[in-house]
Every structure is written in structure tokens, then in C-alpha cells.
Amino acid sequence: MVAYVSNKIAVNSTLGFSNVMGPVEEVQYDDNPVTHIIPTSQVNYMSMVVHFISYAGEGKLIALVSEEVVPDPQQFCQDCADALQLMKQAIHVFAT
């Protein structure tokens, strides 16, 4: 039943969010420093998958897109980065 419900949620989702914050400082795995966390997924039925993760005070934007839907993926990523900067500036203005 859990697998059925999980599958239905994933197949019928057009947008999903998680607000789990990444670690503020770099972590180690088996005495090796973890310098990057880059999430990805293989989703055959979606033309766009975007991940944003914060790790050690930095944000990473990862986009998997179909060039039929987004003809210029680099521009799409730059637009997302610009939008995040605008949100950051708005938060600073609102907080003061």
C-alpha cells in the first residue's frame, strides 16, 4: 500500500518541495571530506526536474531538462540563480 501511494504521489506531482536544510559546515564520510552534494534523479515521464540544495553555506542548483521544453538550459539556470538573488535581496530588505 505504501509503495502504491508513493508511486501515485510521484507520478501525479508537478511540483514538490522539501525544506530540510543541509549541514552548515562540511562533513566527512569515512574520514573523507564531502565537498559537494549533488542530488539527481532519473525521471522518464517529466521534462523538467530541478534540485536546489544548501551545503556548507553554499547553494547548488541542479536542473535536468528536456531541450524540447527548455531550449537553453544554461540560460534557465542563470534565470533561476538571478531569481534566487532577487529573493535574497527582498528578504534582507524585509528583515531591516
- Mean pLDDT across the residues is 79
**SS-based class:** alpha+beta
Helix content: 25-40%
Q: Span between N and C termini? A: 49 Å
What is the makeup of the main sheet?
Answer: 2 strands, antiparallel
Strand order of the largest sheet: 1-2
Radius of gyration: 17 Å
Query: Which strand-content bin applies to the residues?
Result: 15-25%
Q: What is the overall shape?
A: globular
Task: Work out the helix count.
Answer: 2
- SSE order, one letter for each helix or strand: HEEEEH
Number of strands: 4
Uncertain regions: pLDDT < 50 for 5+ in a row? none
Q: What does this protein look like?
A:
By secondary structure, the chain is α+β, with helices and mostly antiparallel strands. It is 35% helix and 21% strand. The protein contains 2 helices and 4 strands; from the N terminus they run αββββα. The strands form 2 sheets. A two-stranded antiparallel ribbon has the order 1-2. The longest helix is centred in the last third of the chain and has 23 residues, at 73-95. The termini are far apart.
Output the keywords.
about 100 residues, about 20% strand, O-acyltransferase activity, O-acyltransferase WSD1 C-terminal domain-containing protein, alpha+beta, 2 helices, two-stranded antiparallel sheet, O-acyltransferase_WSD1-like
